[in-house]
Amino acid sequence: MADRILVVEDEAEIAELLELYLGNEGYGVVKCSSGAGALRVVETEAFDLALLDLMLPDIDGLALCRTIRERHHYPIIMLTARDSESDKITGLTYGADDYVTKPFRPLELMARVRAQLRRYKRYNLPEREPAKSGLLTHAGLVMNVQNHSCTLHDRDLSLTPTEFEILRILLERKGAVVSAEELFREIWREEYYTKNNNSITVHVRHLRDKMMDTAEAPEYIRTVWGVGYKIED
Ligand code: CA
């Protein structure tokens, strides 16, 4: 079955362009021109990925992002007209997995959609990667790779797919330092992301917040300055 993509965009021209490109890639597309419409649709229909415009006429795209993230695990890519670092960080903090600044190049956006779907699908096909199935544990942290859940002292951490992947990689290589670049390559496998790897910093910060960990006195994820991140063995 074709992957289903939700497109929430109030500018008809952009929505149609997205539908055209996504359709050519073989995806099923559902378009919504308002936040209210999108909220109705996400309640009743299943999706594999959502593309959300940040500036919607009725509700804030970030609020929509947070609401979807509270209920669903599929990747969310934000479309933002603004190119400021704080907007990007805010989007990632609200549970988005990636962001694309308008005007965007359609082919680059398609590559990002593919990368996010590929990463997301890994959870749904555990039999393909038996080595990654099962439980990873560390000091009160329990990560179930098969059902994509993670608890810390029995409290659900509600990780986004990207946060989950970062933590999984660090736990699998416990004791070793993993660079931001390595995390990028492993998670997205797209070379053009290497220019953009400060967003790993944002994801790690958000992970620490959820774990009530700090960069200054980390109990879990330690920053090795100039090298990368590490979970002590
Ligand atoms: Ca808009």
Description of the structure:
The protein is of the alpha/beta class. The chain is 41% helix and 20% strand. Helix 4 (85-93) packs parallel to helix 8. The longest helix is centred in the middle third of the chain and has 19 residues, at 106-124. The structure holds calcium ion (CA).
Number of strands: 11
Largest sheet: 5 strands, parallel
Order of helices and strands: EHEHEHEHEHEEEEHHHEE
Low-confidence residue ranges: 125-132
Mean pLDDT: 85
> What is the terminal-to-terminal distance?
42 Å
Shape: globular
The helix-and-strand class reads alpha/beta
Radius of gyration: 18 Å
Q: Order of strands across the biggest sheet?
A: 2-1-3-4-5
Secondary structure tally, helices: 8
As a percent range, the share of helical residues equals 40-55%
Topology of helices and strands:
Elements: E1 4-8, H1 12-24, E2 28-32, H2 35-44, E3 49-53, H3 61-71, E4 76-80, H4 85-93, E5 98-101, H5 106-124, E6 135-138, E7 141-144, E8 149-152, E9 155-156, H6 161-172, H7 180-188, H8 198-210, E10 221-224, E11 228-231
Parallel strand pairs: 1-2, 1-3, 3-4, 4-5
Antiparallel strand pairs: 6-7, 7-8, 8-9, 10-11
Helix pairs in contact: 2-3, 4-8, 6-8
Calcium ion binds at residues 10-11, 53, 55-56.
